[in-house]
Hints:
- The complex is a heterodimer.
- Chain A is mainly alpha-helical.
- Chain A contains 6 helices and 2 strands; from the N terminus they run αααβαααβ.
- Chain A starts with 25 loop residues before the first helix and ends in an 8-residue tail after the last strand.
- The model of chain A has no long low-confidence stretch (mean pLDDT 92).
- The longest helix of chain B is centred in the first third of the chain and has 32 residues, at 32-63.
- In chain B, α2 crosses α3 (129-144).
- Chain B has one domain.
- Chain B is of the alpha+beta class.
- Helix content of chain B is 51%, strand content 13%.
- In chain B, a hairpin with a 2-residue loop joins β2 and β3.
- The chains are: A mainly alpha, B alpha+beta.
- Chains A and B meet through α1 of A and β4, α3 and α5 of B.
Amino acid sequence: MSEPTDAWQAPQPEAGPAPGMAFASPGSRLIAYILDIVIQFVIVITLGTLAVVFGAIFFLIGTLFALGIIAVTVGYFPYFWTRSGQTPGMSKMKIKVVRDADGGPLTVGQAVLRLIGLWIGLAVFYIGVIWIFIDKRKRGWQDLFGGTVVVDVPPAEYVA
Amino acid sequence: MSATPPPATPQVAWESPERAVGPAPGIEYAPHGARLVAYILDGLIAAAVCLVLIVAAFIVLAAGSTIVDNEVTALNPITTTVFVLLVVITIGVAILYFPFFWARGGQTPGMRPFGLRVVRDRDGGSIGWGTAFLRLLGLWVAASVFYLGYVWIFIDKRRRGWQDLIAGTIVVKQS
């Protein structure tokens, strides 16, 4: 076993965007994203099943469910980003997305740009998300497009 | 006759590379080559264990089946259950091999001959199961983009691959 030692030189303390705040670690962001994808997947599968079942009975209702799938696919992330800055996955990992300029909440325009940025970042061999490892403020392309940054939620703000 | 090149003599003016400073006295960042060989050794060990288990599984399955004219006509329920169990254990070994050793002292069998160890980046302590699983996930992510996550070890000052950056770990060599 390896015990912590006082002589250990810890990695350079990374300055956060404000005193007492830290940029979210790549690990928490990865898990949050996986959780969100799983949730989205479950919702889409459910809606898809309903679309097929109800579509067989009455075509228009099936179409409504199909439109619901598109709404969830496109709207899931921007909805939560603008609402509280936390998708369900991010809230589990205690991280949130805020405006890079002043730490405020995202506008709808920023959220949409961020989603487009995420798609582009994933499309180009994931370089857009790899950017998180390189950028000093841990911004992926989605953050650079949206003008955002992802931070750890300060313990004081935990909702019990 | 080709001119033989002059023997390389040590140059007084030679600037040797900067010595890599470890995270603590007596501890250095694991050499790249040792990490690679350790990983290959671990891959071989895990594969060998899985191979033995899966061969045993099919021997058990075959032993319990009744064969008439090259057709399986009946399966013994007990041996079939043992077969399924062995397959599940094989999958378990394949997935748990790395996290198991990382979470229990940080040293896989492949790392032992080189004295390598996975520790927390923050303070050098041992990692737990959660971090170990996150590191395995990170290892898959690192391999998925043209192994760029492994190449990162050459770039990072503390020799962290993506698996290390994601899990907050480093690999050290205790001398």
